Amino acid sequence: MELMSVNAKGSTVRGKDIVVCGTCLFKEKPKYLEEFRKNENHAILHFCPEKEHINMAFYKIMSIMSVARSLTIVTTDGSPHCVQLHYIADEVNRYSERKFAVKHFVINNGKMHEVFAEDVKLSRYLSKIKRLREMCEISP
Question: Is-above-0.90 flag for pTM?
């Protein structure tokens, strides 16, 4: 179901574990969502940051998470658009009065990898990544 089409307080999301993925992943590579589909408590929603502004998703997810249990983001790794879904998930949790579990997954080379919230946050700060690369002597 499209994120922007779901009733933010409705039965589709109320008390559920929310999974938000990129629309391209939802439509073109649905096999990566099979594990989530097996659990009837998951509500899988998709959003395309190329089509709609990410602020729309932020406010919608903020509303949904006032009645949902947890939030998982699944995107294609390396997408400059979809990475924003990871950023706003942590922002929603940060600004929400009610805290909830957030998980992040990316698809890379045919495999799904869980990444930590700290990794997502670090990816927002290019100067920190540069310093880490220098410390580990990784050339550009």
Answer: yes
Amino acid 68: pLDDT = 97
Q: List 43's β-bridge partners, or say none.
A: 18
| Strands (E) located in the chain | 17-22, 42-47, 70-76, 101-108, 111-115
Tell me what the mean pLDDT of segment 43-55 comes to.
96
Over the stretch 83-126, which tens digit does the pLDDT of each residue have?
A: 999 999 999 999 999 999 999 999 999 999 999 999 999 998 88
SS3 1: coil
Split into its structural domains, the chain has a count of 1
Phi-psi group of 123: left, alpha or beta (phi > 0 → left; psi -120 to 50 → alpha; rest → beta)? alpha
140 occurs within a structural domain:
no
Q: Name the residue range of residue 48's domain.
A: 3-135
Residue of 101, 115, 3, 105 lying closest to 61 (CA atoms): 3
Average pLDDT value for the chain: 95
Q: Calculate the CA dihedral of residues 136, 119, 105, 7 and round it to 10 degrees.
A: -160
Q: Is the dihedral of CA 41, 19, 102, 28 positive or negative?
A: positive
